[in-house]
Amino acid sequence: MFEQIAAVFFDLDGTLVDSVPDLTAALNVMLQQLDLPKRKEAQVRTWVGNGMDTLIRRALVGEMDDSGADPALFTRAEPLYRAAYAEHVSVYSSLYPGVVEGLAQLRAMGLPTACVTNKPVVFAKPLLERLGIGDFFVTVVGGDCVPQPKPAPDALLLCAERLGVPITQGLMVGDSINDVSAARNAGCPVVCVPYGYNHGHDIREAVPDAVISSIAELPALLRKTR
Questions:
Q1: Whole-number mean pLDDT of the chain?
Q2: Which residues have a catalytic role annotated?
Q3: Which of 41, 88, 122, 152 is deepest in the core (most CB within 10 A)?
Q4: Which are the contacts of 7, defined by CB distance < 8 A and separation ≥ 6?
């Protein structure tokens, strides 16, 4: 399954970086400006994964089902959140254990890597740079770079195009059912980590091709089949 892998596409939030503390801080600045109650970090952990706009709507209504969010209120909230998150991109965020080790080994193996995230690029790139891993990635594809973000295949297909590899020779690495679905929709294999943001569900329920406990385990998994 992994024999022909020529490039690796990494999700960002929940896979490489624990960003929820900063997301929560930014959301609470926004909510305070709107005279709405603050949300707890534990709540936000279950809301992440479907892009910035959906996260804002969930915070506004205080639950996973964002269908009740007032469009006019969202229009006020979105620029407030953007401004707040620009100030909180990497205040409290941190790399998960094994990320640097795994990325360094993949580079030593000659495998190019891309970051593919539903987060807008204007936030994703500074986060990667400030945490010291930006240089590992040939390209960063955000949710604002494509017509449809994950779980649509668009972002993965763009990664493959930018890295010059067939999509079938790309490997998606993520933490959520959105990453698994995006890989299935694009036609490439997918490996997941169990510690991220999957709306409170065990990622094994999404049946990825493999589950690894940390990114540091990925090079060994690929070496076995190369």
A1: 96
A2: 11
A3: 88
A4: 111, 112, 113, 114, 159, 160, 163, 165, 169, 170, 171
